[in-house]
TrEMBL record:
The chain crosses the membrane at residues 281-303, 310-333, 339-356. SUPFAM superfamilies: Nucleotide-diphospho-sugar transferases (SSF53448). This is Glycosyltransferase 2-like domain-containing protein. The keyword Membrane applies. Residues 43-167 form the Glycosyltransferase 2-like domain. Pfam families: Glycos_transf_2 (PF00535). Keywords: Membrane, Transmembrane, Transmembrane helix. The lineage of its organism: unclassified sequences, metagenomes, ecological metagenomes.
Length: 363
């Protein structure tokens, strides 16, 4: 059991050391020897699927933002919604500078993105989701860094405050990590709800890929830098509400897909590969080890009283997390316990499914 404690502590310390290592790598500035003029021509691609309750506000906001550009095109692609979104979007079909694509079959986000890039005429493309609220002048800001020839993509930043103005420690921590990665020029994964990319840097994304934003980022990093803009704020629903068990499983499946794409990983240099594995994969081991430490402490305390203090401490933390959350610490603890059990269950479930799938394939 002591070995489990030590491994858990080691994993946590290694993960906490990641930003220190990034800072030691130094800051990389965009190469601005011959920056392009202010960008006044963009193609905005809005991805729509069963989000009728968000569409009117989102389309109105985006049209207002686009009016500040000299030239723009607004491409709206609906992935065969069934909630009335298609009927709502039909009213924009004949509007100037707006192209509405209503697909007759649900084919997923990568298909819609690839289609949007095919239709786009500008070399600067912005992808946008339907659910989130955005800060003002965000479109002008998000394309600004693309003036530098060395920058291939720019990510917005999901605010640590959600739509109800409640803070999320996890989002705050992720933003901190991504900001340091951005200073290195190697942001490992743009934020999917809003980001900009040069058309010539956009890779065709296979339709089976789940983490399209991570796939795209890895491809872009081969030749260009990726930047995060902290003042391009996205306001989303509560982190706890969004990240349920199904989303945890989907995220894990997406990361496994990335690992299987050997040709994709070959796009990264050694430092970028270390960043990917350290940031995205190492942290997946921490939640299961935390749960194993807790369960193991309970079992071992039956046979040895020396483990009882650890078990009691962890149990008190668990009970505190189950109480109504009134303080930031309780919110952090509640989410930490929740996600630890999600990953503790999801990782072996996915491994078992893959094992059975391989056995079935061999028969």
């Amino acid at each position: 059991m002591i070995t489990i404690y030590l491994l858990t502590a080691l994993l946590i310390l290694l993960y906490l050391a990641y930003p220190l290592w990034l800072k030691a790598c130094g800051t990389v500035q965009p190469e601005d020897e011959s920056p392009e003029p202010d960008i006044q021509n963009i193609s905005l691609v809005l991805l729509s699927y069963n989000g009728l309750q968000y569409l009117k506000e989102k389309v109105d906001f985006l049209l207002s933002e686009l009016s500040g550009f000299q030239h723009y095109e607004f491409i709206i692609i609906d992935d065969n919604s069934t909630d009335g979104s298609k009927e709502f979007l039909k009213q924009f079909s004949n509007k100037k500078n707006i192209t509405v694509i209503l697909k007759s079959e649900h084919k997923g986000i990568p298909h819609s993105m690839n289609l949007g890039v095919t239709l786009a005429t500008s070399r600067y493309i912005v992808f946008c989701d339907q659910r989130q609220k955005l800060s003002s002048r965000i479109l002008h800001k998000i394309v600004g860094p693309l003036r530098s020839p060395s920058v291939g993509a720019v990510s917005s930043c999901i605010s640590q405050y959600d739509k109800k103005n409640k803070i999320s420690f996890f989002r705050e921590h992720e933003n901190f990590m991504k900001a340091i990665e951005s200073n290195c020029g190697c942001l490992i994964g743009v934020y999917g709800p809003l980001y900009a990319v040069r058309k010539e840097c956009y890779p065709i994304i296979p339709e089976h890929i789940i983490l399209d934003d991570l796939f795209l980022s890895i491809k872009v990093l081969r030749t260009k830098q990726i930047r995060l803009l902290g003042d391009c704020r996205i306001f989303d629903d509560s982190f706890s509400r969004l990240y349920d068990y199904q989303r945890t499983r989907r995220y894990l499946h997406g990361l496994l897909q990335i690992l299987k794409e050997e040709s994709l990983l070959n796009h990264l240099n050694n430092r970028q590969l270390i960043m990917l594995l350290w940031h995205k994969y190492l942290r997946l081991l921490i939640p299961p080890f935390l749960v194993i430490s807790y369960l193991g402490s309970g079992i071992c305390s039956i046979f040895s009283i020396g483990y009882l203090p650890v078990f009691v401490f962890l149990t008190l933390a668990l009970l505190l997390s189950l109480l109504p959350a009134f303080f930031t610490f309780q919110f952090i603890l509640k989410n930490l316990v929740r996600f630890s059990f999600f990953y503790f269950i999801a990782i072996p479930e996915i491994m078992i499914r893959l094992l059975f799938r391989k056995k079935s394939a061999c028969k």
